[in-house]
Each structure stands twice: as structure tokens, then as C-alpha cells.
Amino acid sequence: MMAKNLQADLLMLLVTFLAAMGWMFSHEALNEMPPLGFIGVRFLLAGLLVGALGWHQVRPLHRQAWRRACATGVVMGLAMLCWILGLSKATQLGVGAFISSLSVVLVPVVGWLFFRQTPSTSTWIALLVATLGLGSLSLETGLNFAPSDGYFAAAAVILALHFNLNSRYALSIPPVALTGIQLGVVGLMALLASGLTETWAVPISGVGIGWLLASILIATSLRFFLQIKAQGMASASHAAIIMTLEPVWTAVLAMLWLDETMSLQQLIGCSLIFLSLLINRWRWLLHRPG
């Protein structure tokens, strides 16, 4: 029988692949849907689905738990609005995925800035290496940070704040209920923003609806369900280390799916960012339980 830790690792590996697939599904869906409208429909329907499946956790929640879940959902919503705007303007999804993954490095830094948590030395080293990686990417076009890269970087910072708030304020909320509420809040925020700024010019084709459903069912609902299940089976160090593979999967899929290529300088920049993720998790990697 497969060891529990190995099952958790394989599930988390699948989660990173599904997350990378979400980049592809979203890229295809944006060919027919406005970005904010797409992310709104995707997250609201996913939130309703997860919430319905976990209704036994949602129903008994107290008012304070609802406030905390909704507040952290608003922060997550700001991050996802930045992410989808970045995706809508991106010419290279692989590069964007590596920039977005900086949220892992920034979690302890945000914790230090806002909650007076002392980061380890490895965190500062990882941040330095990540900065060098971002510098390499920006120098690709002569010290110029593309608008999409700026959105992805903003999303990374806000996601790091979201992680800290989740860890600090939402520990008492059942994970499925918390996930469903947060996804729903993101969807409502995005739909409101879409209603104020976007127009839906043409009806969506069957292909567009297919990409939307794939995003809702596979890249959002199934991904978060499996992530919650895997995190409940093993230590956080397992998940943290394996989650660093998401940008790698995304870059590989972008090359296979979209025929993307990277210049040598971009490869160096992305490699430095990936190295910063490993440095940030180095202690867990060395002391990984069997």
C-alpha cells in the first residue's frame, strides 16, 4: 500500500499541474471573454460548487468566521484581479508564472512588515536571488518592465499578504468552507468590476464555454479540493516544496501549447527566481520527513 506521505506528494504534484493547466485554460477563454468577467464567472461558480459540497462546514459558521473569510476573500480578489489583467496582456505565460510564484518568497517578508514576524536568513538570501532574477527579466528589453509583469508582481505581493492573513485570522474556519467563501467573494468582486468597466461584445461560442467550464471544474474546484486533501495528509513542508513546480509546469505547457520560447536572458531570470523558491524552502527540504 502506498505510504501516506507519498500519496500526499503525488496529489500535490497533480495540484501544481492543474494550476499550470489553469493558465492555459484561462488564456484560451480570454479569446472570447473579457478578463474581469471571465475571472468573475469562473470563481463565483467554483465558489458555489465548493460551498455546496462543503455545506455541512458552511452552515454552522459564526458571524466572526464569515467576516474573516470574506475579508481574506477580498484580499484574494485583489490579487486575482491583478493576475487576470496581467494574463490578458502577457506575451509569455511562462515568464508571468515565475513572477507570480514570487509570492512564496514574499510570504515571510510581508509577515515581517505587517505582523513583526522575524524571517530567517534564507528568506533574505532568497529575496536577493529573486530580485536578481526579476532584474534579468526586466533587462531583456533594456531596463523595461512589461505592464503584464507589473500586474503579476502586484499579484504576488497581494497573495503573500493573503497567505499571512489566512494563517493568522482564519485558522478556526474549516478549510472547505473557507475556500468556498473566498472563491465566491473573488467572483463577486470581479463581476462588479467587470460590470463597471467591460462590455461583452459577442455571444460566447461552445468552445469558449468549454474553456470556461474547464477553468471552473478542473483548474479551480478540483485543484483546490485536491490541495486541501493533500495538505491534510502531510506536513506543510511537503506542499511548500512541491508547489514551487507550478511555474515550471506552466513554462513547459506554454512551450508545448502556445509555442512560446525564452531567450537566454529570460531563462537565466526564471532560473534565478526558481532558485530563490528552493532557497526559501531549503530548511524544509533538508529536514523533509520520510
UniProtKB/TrEMBL annotation:
<feature type="transmembrane region" description="Helical">
    <location>
        <begin position="175"/>
        <end position="194"/>
    </location>
</feature>
<feature type="transmembrane region" description="Helical">
    <location>
        <begin position="200"/>
        <end position="226"/>
    </location>
</feature>
<feature type="transmembrane region" description="Helical">
    <location>
        <begin position="264"/>
        <end position="282"/>
    </location>
</feature>
<dbReference type="InterPro" id="IPR051258">
    <property type="entry name" value="Diverse_Substrate_Transporter"/>
</dbReference>
<feature type="transmembrane region" description="Helical">
    <location>
        <begin position="93"/>
        <end position="115"/>
    </location>
</feature>
<feature type="transmembrane region" description="Helical">
    <location>
        <begin position="122"/>
        <end position="139"/>
    </location>
</feature>
<keyword id="KW-0812">Transmembrane</keyword>
<feature type="domain" description="EamA">
    <location>
        <begin position="8"/>
        <end position="135"/>
    </location>
</feature>
<dbReference type="InterPro" id="IPR037185">
    <property type="entry name" value="EmrE-like"/>
</dbReference>
<keyword id="KW-1133">Transmembrane helix</keyword>
<protein>
    <recommendedName>
        <fullName>EamA domain-containing protein</fullName>
    </recommendedName>
</protein>
<keyword id="KW-0472">Membrane</keyword>
<dbReference type="Pfam" id="PF00892">
    <property type="entry name" value="EamA"/>
</dbReference>
<feature type="transmembrane region" description="Helical">
    <location>
        <begin position="36"/>
        <end position="56"/>
    </location>
</feature>
<feature type="transmembrane region" description="Helical">
    <location>
        <begin position="68"/>
        <end position="87"/>
    </location>
</feature>
<feature type="transmembrane region" description="Helical">
    <location>
        <begin position="238"/>
        <end position="258"/>
    </location>
</feature>
<keyword id="KW-1003">Cell membrane</keyword>
<dbReference type="GO" id="GO:0005886">
    <property type="term" value="C:plasma membrane"/>
</dbReference>
<feature type="transmembrane region" description="Helical">
    <location>
        <begin position="145"/>
        <end position="163"/>
    </location>
</feature>
<feature type="domain" description="EamA">
    <location>
        <begin position="151"/>
        <end position="279"/>
    </location>
</feature>
<dbReference type="InterPro" id="IPR000620">
    <property type="entry name" value="EamA_dom"/>
</dbReference>
